[in-house]
Write a structure and sequence with these properties.
Blueprint lengths: L2 H22 L3 E10 L3 E2 L2 E2 L6 E10 L3 E9 L45 E12 L4 E11 L8 E10 L2 E11 L11 E10 L4 E11 L8 E11 L5 E9 L11 E9 L1
InterPro entries: CHP02001 (IPR010239)
Keywords: Signal
Amino acid sequence: MTAPRIATLALSALTLGMLQTASAESPHSFSANIGAVSNYMWRGVSQTQDGPAVQGGLDYSHASGFYAGTWASNIDLNNEGASQEVIIPLDPATGLPATDANGNWIGYTGGSSNPNSPTYELDLYTGFGGKINDDLKWDLNAIYYAYPDGRDSNFAEIGGKLTYKWLTAGLAYTVYGENDEGLYDNGDLYYFGALDFSLPYEFAFNVHGGYYSFTNSNGDSYGNWGATVSRAIGDYGTVSFNYDQNGGNDSVYETDPIFWAGWKKTF
């Protein structure tokens, strides 16, 4: 091997090493995730009327602790069910469906064709987190829950949590809501806590609970609790088996135990 060839190989190796070092030291990180669940449960309430959902998101994080991302899922919030009768009177002046001052159709009584009920959720979030020591971590965040094809449904929260070893506690405060004098409006608070443990054979176990305090309650505030067993299965993502239950007014919420399964893969 000639000296120029040796020098070229050495320079190439040095350049490659420098590129790998620069890449490894990049403070930026990007990831994507996709998943599927047999029931989209959120804070003890099904968002799909006990039906399945396909979900996914994109995330960015910085070495400083800053992060931001977006996440989406199909939903079905028609608690009345699809068998109810739909009555939509026509405006005699225009021949079109009659609407109120806010543009909502008048006379709707229930059913899956409700034009004001969203069919998907799109979340936007950002936050900043770090650790005080190896055992104590903190996180501050803000999230905007958007329902683009719904009406008067969007709301936003700010929140925070502390994690000490296997114990997490936090709260979320609603700072903006379009559902005036209803649920998910300004001033709502959700308190939550969780315990996370490692199990043999690379299984993980989580127990969690929370309490939702609505400003405009009318008896709708509730507590919820549940548990999850999960396991990573290599390149195939993570599978989970879950239990959730709602302790609220049984005339408002489904209070029977709910068991559901989930799968998620991060790229």
